[in-house]
Amino acid sequence: xxxxxxxxxxxxxxSRRATFQNVVGPHPLLRLGAGFAFKGVDIMIxxxxxxxxxxxxxxxxxxxxxVYNNHVKDISEYIGYxxxxxxxxxxxxxxxxxxxxxxMPITVFSDSMYAVKMLSGEWSPKENIELIFxxxxxxxxxxxxKIEWIRGHTGNRYNERADYLANGAAMxxxxx
Length: 176
Description:
The protein contains 4 helices and 6 strands, in the order ββββαβααβα. With about 180 residues, it is α/β, with parallel strands linked by helices. It has a single domain, classed as Ribonuclease H-like superfamily/Ribonuclease H (Nucleotidyltransferase, domain 5), CATH 3.30.420. Strands 1-4-3-2-5-6 form a 6-stranded mixed β-sheet. The longest helix has 19 residues, at about 155-175. The radius of gyration is 16 Å and the shape is globular.
């Protein structure tokens, strides 16, 4: 780890609809300050990212749930007109943009096989090439990012929440 960088979670709001909820009080590691190194401690940030386009193509929305120990942050953002695949990729990008500490291990969960396979390099892009390249370049700036597929609509509360936020943002754009 590099010198004096802080190892506390730093999250910046992505939109006016971002909320932060402390579920059971401040995490004890956050009180230890910048000098604490996570040596031997398994701490990770989880990002649950989902995108929606209503209809497809149509108004796009992104839903992101950031989880750090007992801290949860919801982000819901309308992103304009386009396809579901663009919304899924953009949700991953927005989730990562909200993490300032790039030394922390991060796992991104997405129920989009397209986003996971494209960003992991298993599939070669034929569309959305610039967006995929931009996200991959951004991922390379982090110390440790894993992208994992999670089956959608199977009761994972954070994935269900991301889906709800994405659809809500897309419908908000549809009404506007």
